[in-house]
Amino acid sequence: MSIMRIQHWQDAASLLVGVWLVLSSFVLGLSGAAVWFTIALGLGVMLFAVEGFVIPSYLEEWGEMLLGLALLLAPWTVGYESASATASSALSGILVILFAGWELMTDRDFTAWWDDYWHHRPG
Question: Which InterPro entries does the record match to this protein (predicted)?
């Protein structure tokens, strides 16, 4: 039995952002497609964050970055009705992208892969 261990505080921070996204649908009074879109993206962020606890790898950060981008674009593509919902989605997207990028830049496995890839390319 393995115990979950937080290797990067950014995963815990992303998990909190995901929880906020799920709750914000109700707190901010979203309606229609915005509710389900925000909940789905929040659950996705939570899933990637928990995956970072269970199977530590730098690969989930790329998924979080895509979800962050979707959060940034959602208010204008889905059509959020309130400024507070738009601000929440955009700010959450920025935070998710920043946390994922920060984790990538501080992850030993990723930086080792990056250095190896760029220093041992043919040509």
Answer: SPW (IPR005530)
CB of 90 within 8 A of CB of 68? no
> Cβ(53)–Cβ(5) under 8 Å?
yes
| Separation between Cα atoms, residue 90 and residue 12, nearest integer Å | 19
Mean of all residue pLDDT scores within the chain: 83
Q: Which residues contact 116 (CB under 8 A, 6 or more apart)?
A: none
| Backbone angle region of 15, left / alpha / beta, with phi > 0 → left and psi within -120 to 50 → alpha | alpha
Looking at residue 31, what is its pLDDT? 84
